Amino acid sequence: MLRFKNLGSGSTGNATVVEGRCGTLTRRLLIDCGFGIRQLQARLAQAQLQPDDLDGIFITHEHSDHIGCAQALAVRYRVPVWMSQGTYSALGAPDFDGLLQVAHDMHAIDMGAFNAVPFTVPHDAREPLQLRFTDGASHLGLLTDLGHASDHVLEQLKGCNALMIEANHDPALLDASRYPLFLKRRVAGPYGHLANEATGSILRAVRHSRLQCVVAAHLSARNNTPTLAKQALGRALDTSPDDITVASPTAGTPWLTVTG
Q1: Considering the domain boundaries, does residue 63 fall inside one?
Q2: Residue 53 — φ and ψ, nearest 5°?
Q3: Which of 20, 53, 66, 240 is exposed most, by the fewest CB atoms within 10 A?
Q4: What is the CATH number of the domain that holds 113?
Q5: What share of the chain is helix, strand, coil (3-state, %, to 5)?
Q6: 48-57 pLDDT, tens digit each
Q7: Has residue 111 been placed in a domain?
Q8: Which helix (DSSP H) or strand (DSSP E) does residue 20 occupy?
């Protein structure tokens, strides 16, 4: 069985737990760690978890809302950490006390109860990676922080039964915002963040009859609303906006089961 819970998603911090169970074996991977350690512990507790319950941490890229307390958490609780060599270099090569594992595009990480397959994405970071998970029967795609979907990205999302995908901004709200021009261009650029309709285009490209769960993530607090995101993604899937889950920056999502 494969399930996941977002602990919070947005510019103030990002973290998601993916859990797989195979017989009596349960394994959990924390994807991103973009909070202070006390805040992360509190969010794990809300998921009925403790840091000791984690079997690994995967960092998608070096931006502060994703790296957060990763080093402190890993070293304190002796949790292995995966990230790309580019991410590690961009962080200044911090000391993970022997816990660091270098992740590579399309090199699967065997977590025992499930596999996590990293894949490269176009984003303004050194070597960003996102992830596809499978327990053999069901497939989950996690995709945040990218400016557009390359063919490589689309290929990794095909056949997923559940997706957590960035729906960062509404272009009209971004254009009318008080962001300086350079920041507007960065957010809307090909290595920035996905607009709602761009996310919808990705969903149209990869939708299939067994795609049962879609979570809109990394919404901008200033340049988007849950209603706009849900409407755009609902249109793309020809479904009700109420069928789209939005990951809250404060509460994340409930536990969601991925069914093949």
Answers
A1: yes
A2: -80, -10
A3: 240
A4: 3.60.15.10
A5: 30, 25, 45
A6: 999 999 999 9
A7: yes
A8: strand 15-22
Tokens at residue 227, please? 């209603």
Identify the three-state secondary structure at position 187: helix
Number of domains in the chain: 1
222 token code pair: 């200033």
The gap from C-alpha 179 to its chain's centroid, in whole angstroms, comes to 24
pLDDT tens sequence across 133-157: 999 999 999 999 999 999 999 999 9
Which regions in the chain score pLDDT beneath 70? none
Q: Whole-prediction pTM value? A: 0.97
pLDDT for the residue numbered 240: 97
Direct distance between the N- and C-terminal alpha carbons of the chain, in angstroms, rounded to an integer: 10
CA angle 179–180–181, rounded 5-degree value: 115
CA distance 67 to 60: 8
* Containing structural domain, residue 23: 2-252
